[in-house]
Amino acid sequence: MVDVPHRRPARTVRLRSVGDGELELQYRVVHGYRRAFRMAGEGPALVLIHGIGDSSATWAELIPDLARTHTVIAPDLLGHGASDKPRADYSVAAYANGVRDLLTTLGIESATLVGHSLGGGVAMQFAYQFPERTERLILVSAGGVGREVNPMLRLVSLPGAHLMLSALRLPGARLQVGLAVRLMKAMDTDIGQDAPDLLNLVDALPDETSRNAFIRTLRAVVDWRGQVVTMLDRCYLTEGMPTMLLWGDRDSVVPVRHAFGAHEAMPGSRLEIFEGAGHFPFHADPGRFVALVEEFTRGTAPADWSREHWRELLREGRPGGLRDRAAGRELLEASERSAT
Predicted confidence band at 9 (pLDDT cuts at 50, 70, 90)? Predict the structure, then answer.
């Protein structure tokens, strides 16, 4: 389904308030590396996974509301935020493993996953690798369901990206970029919608270690032609998994048409479009975002995973096979870019 743009779901009854102390960063050492995370609230587990270059701070405005009805866990992925930034594996599959291991140390066996951008790809990969631990999927402007991506990210995947990111932090460059951003916003362009948030990501890379981790992460999922990995070829496995997609119709990073493609490929999924929003719909309209998450988690039962059902889905394969030649080419291309 696609929601009427101005509909607002009814808000759920609040269970408890959340103190400021609960929103502070906490730390766990997993496999010798420090992992930062925020954890607050009580109730069913809700894991918020940020996008590339971002951190758990991106969810800060939403956590107090969500934590009134859920146990909210918002990690800083390895190489991001206050987590360690080693020379390590920054693939989507490795991130899914890292989320599983952090949740295990926290005593959380299953959860609803909310993933934004790269985090959406991580959430999908988590559900693919650990379906028995996934209750629901909420994918927000998610990567991994199409090749297209903002040209700037393709540029940063090329050699010399370290110098470019370093140069963007110079005072003179920041002034020029700031002027360009104001011009793009004045012209009401889609990139103008997202530019302030994207610049904040550059500001979150203060040193060479942070920039190296960012570039290694980016190159694991993007090259000069676009997104490298995809879950499109395995979306049929979400049958029986409550799944909601949230997207801004002016997303300049991952085009909104990816939302419609993913919605079609995911049996029984729900699609909600944020009109006028860019790549960060939860920043553009946090009230609507929280209300949708609450309504969805309250109104759907957790996925009832079984080994037999999973085996049957794998044996049956993609619905329709490759009968449609155009769709077949797209899926074959997707398979070549599979995360596995």
Answer: very low
